[in-house]
């Protein structure tokens, strides 16, 4: 399917989704969000795809929700259309792993989109922020929730209340991103992480994603029990037999997602 605001390439088991509204620093408007959801759902159902990478441009992953799209809307408009709710639910339903490869600005909805992905790899030019307060509003796609869980209350309050940006080094120190690399290395690093994941058993990959995300919704004891039960269930797979046999036979496992 041809998209207007994103570019999608599927190669070597990886779906690479590039946000592509260069004139608006990839601001998230209705069209882009709907195309992104469509592309993610395509990747979910495409058997060839084993990992997804979402990225932007060198200057901006995404500079937020599209302010021009929102500026004239009333409370009744955004409440009635439930602005951003369907998209965030759809993105949350993707079971395959999603890596955000961030260069430049990841602000507002851009930072929130990166945090909806399973982990973030960024370039040393990355800048994260929730500057919605400067617009007389607040984060609406997870900036007060996921950011707080990622970096703790102090830094989340600081960013949401002052609107200041966090650079790549601080973001790594705070646990918002998993890796920082020089700008030129970003896509190589993200694609290589995606390839590593693509080699694993998809059943295990999806189970790990589900269990890790459950940790945000459950008490520790319930989460530990959920994890253990899923761990037990993986012994019903051929991939568990293959993985453990390959270890004993000192060879690489050949996973078949069974
Ligand atoms: N929405 C719409 N257009 C945007 C945009 C946004 N979020 N961010 C940038 N643009 C547009 C600019 O209007 C400009 O377009 P024109 O050339 O037509 O004027 C173009 O992108 C380039 O931007 P700048 O000229 O501003 O570039 P810069 O390098 O001087 O500054 C920037 C870069 C610091 C990121 C600045 O563009 C900026 O502050 N952007 C807004 C960031 C922001 O407030 N994001 C939060 C949005 S609200 C939100 O996201 C709500 C939510 O939680 C869901």
From TrEMBL:
Q: Which UniProt keywords apply?
A: Fatty acid metabolism, Lipid metabolism, Lyase
State the EC number(s).
4.2.1.17
Q: Report the Pfam families cross-referenced here.
A: ECH_1
Record InterPro entries: ClpP/crotonase-like_dom_sf (IPR029045), Enoyl-CoA_hyd/isom_CS (IPR018376), Enoyl-CoA_hydra/iso (IPR001753), Enoyl-CoA_hydra_C (IPR014748)
Question: Which GO molecular function entries does the Swiss-Prot or TrEMBL record give?
Answer: enoyl-CoA hydratase activity
Give the transmembrane region(s).
none
Q: Name one GO biological process term.
A: fatty acid beta-oxidation
Reactions performed catalytically: a 4-saturated-(3S)-3-hydroxyacyl-CoA = a (3E)-enoyl-CoA + H2O; a (3S)-3-hydroxyacyl-CoA = a (2E)-enoyl-CoA + H2O
Q: Which family does it belong to?
A: Belongs to the enoyl-CoA hydratase/isomerase family.
> Tell me, what does this protein do in biology?
Could possibly oxidize fatty acids using specific components.
Name of the molecule in the record: enoyl-CoA hydratase
The protein's organism comes out as Lentibacter algarum
């Amino acid at each position: 399917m041809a998209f207007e605001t994103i570019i999608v390439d599927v190669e070597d088991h990886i779906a690479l989704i590039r946000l592509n509204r260069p004139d608006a620093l990839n601001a998230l408007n209705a069209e882009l969000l709907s195309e992104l959801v469509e592309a993610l759902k395509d990747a979910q159902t495409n058997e060839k795809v084993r990992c997804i990478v979402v990225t932007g441009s060198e200057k901006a992953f995404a500079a937020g929700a599209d302010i021009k799209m929102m500026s004239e809307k009333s409370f009744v408009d955004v409440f009635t259309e439930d602005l951003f709710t369907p998209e965030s639910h759809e993105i949350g339903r993707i079971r395959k792993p999603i890596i955000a490869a961030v260069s430049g600005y990841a602000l507002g909805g851009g930072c929130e989109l990166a945090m909806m992905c399973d982990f973030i790899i960024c370039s040393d030019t990355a800048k994260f922020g929730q500057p919605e307060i400067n617009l007389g509003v607040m984060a609406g796609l997870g900036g007060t929730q996921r950011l707080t869980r990622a970096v703790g209350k102090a830094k989340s309050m600081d960013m949401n209340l002052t609107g200041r940006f966090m650079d790549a080094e601080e973001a790594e120190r705070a646990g918002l991103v998993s890796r920082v690399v020089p700008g030129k290395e970003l896509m190589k690093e993200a694609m290589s992480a995606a390839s590593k994941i693509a080699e694993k058993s998809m059943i295990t990959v999806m189970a790990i994603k589900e269990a890790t995300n459950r940790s945000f919704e459950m008490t520790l004891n319930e989460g530990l029990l959920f994890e253990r039960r899923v761990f037990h269930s993986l012994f019903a797979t051929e991939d568990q037999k293959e993985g453990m046999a390959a270890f004993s036979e000192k060879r690489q496992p050949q996973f078949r997602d069974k």
